[in-house]
Write a structure and sequence with these properties.
Length: about 325
């Protein structure tokens, strides 16, 4: 009989509090998950930075227009607004919260998960090339890498080799950079919606001196509802198109890549894509639970691979 993999989650009593991070000379970088390599775990600082800039801008504007500015009042305003709008967004992008999601994801599939893009490999051969990101893998290397990252004991000191050469890649700097480009601005506006609402309140307050309150609030609500309805309609249409194409749409221009290789250049806009990145981005749009916690890194094109490796060799 064929060996049928058991995909039931393993019992896991103790959640790790520390995770392995790669240091030069310890083991080959490609033997551990990409999230353990330098810069491999993407952050999501953009909403917090935007919120902080808006708060500082409001503080500076109030300072310049005030006849008798009070520095302590300005400091208090920045602290209170940061506690409301900035700190929660920083906490939500902490490494440990993302690492905890990765722990649950890898244990669910018994560590048979690609070290580079997070796609499950339970239905693939014992070794080969990941169908999503085209990086070489072996099941033994996947098990060793994820368990090393979780700092499990009783592991062999030498990592199992991965068959074939690795493609050069660059980690994602932010989770937002992994989502489809039409959806990126929508996510950003959604995540700082409270800050935008506060800014809109400050902006419409002077209008109350010239117009009736009900007209000002009515116009504001009409604009807000219209933006939400049209935004949801556009995102819903993109989601349906991606589902019909098996999530193989270009993340930049939404070109259908179904009949193309799993790694290449979009013929419509020239975007360097992998199916791993396409899958992750469109699943993120649908809030799909069957999705790795963070986006896979961007693979460089064949023409850039040699330049990337030559630059690394010159630095060493």
């Amino acid at each position: 009989m064929a060996d049928i993999p058991n995909l039931q989650p393993e019992p896991y009593q103790r959640r790790p509090t520390e995770y392995y991070t790669w240091t030069p000379g310890d083991c080959p970088a490609e033997s551990v998950p990409v999230i353990a390599r330098p810069g491999g775990m993407p952050r999501n600082w953009t909403p917090a930075i935007v919120a902080l800039l808006i708060i500082l801008g409001l503080t500076g504007g109030g300072w310049m227009t005030s006849h008798n500015p009070d520095p302590w009042q300005a400091v208090l305003f920045v602290i209170v607004m940061s506690l409301i709008f900035v700190v929660p967004k920083i906490v939500s992008s902490r490494y440990k919260s993302l690492a905890s999601d990765w722990t649950e994801w890898t244990i669910q599939f018994k560590d048979m998960v690609c070290l580079d893009c997070g796609e499950p490999l339970a239905d693939q051969a014992e070794e080969g090339t990941c169908p999503a990101c085209t990086q070489p893998y072996s099941r033994e290397s996947c098990r060793w890498g994820w368990r090393r990252w979780r700092r499990e004991k009783n592991l062999p000191p030498d990592p199992p080799p991965r068959p074939g050469p690795m493609h050069a890649s660059t980690p994602r700097k932010s989770i937002l950079s992994g989502v489809p480009r039409p959806y990126r601005k929508y996510i950003l506006l959604n995540r700082i919606s409270v800050t935008i609402g506060f800014l809109a309140y400050v902006a419409i307050t002077p209008l109350l001196d010239f117009f009736e309150t009900e007209y000002v609030l009515g116009g504001f609500l009409i604009v807000l509802i219209t933006a939400i309805v049209f935004g949801r309609r556009i995102m819903g249409r993109l989601s349906r198109q991606a589902t019909a194409a098996g999530d193989r749409l270009c993340q930049k221009c939404c070109y259908n890549l179904t009949n193309r290789d799993s790694r290449g250049t979009c013929p419509e806009c020239g975007f360097q894509y992998t199916f791993a990145n396409c899958y992750w981005g469109w699943r993120y749009l649908r809030r799909d639970k069957h999705n790795p916690p963070t986006p896979p890194p961007e693979l460089l094109s064949d023409g850039l691979d040699s330049a990337h490796l030559a630059a690394d060799a010159s630095q060493q």
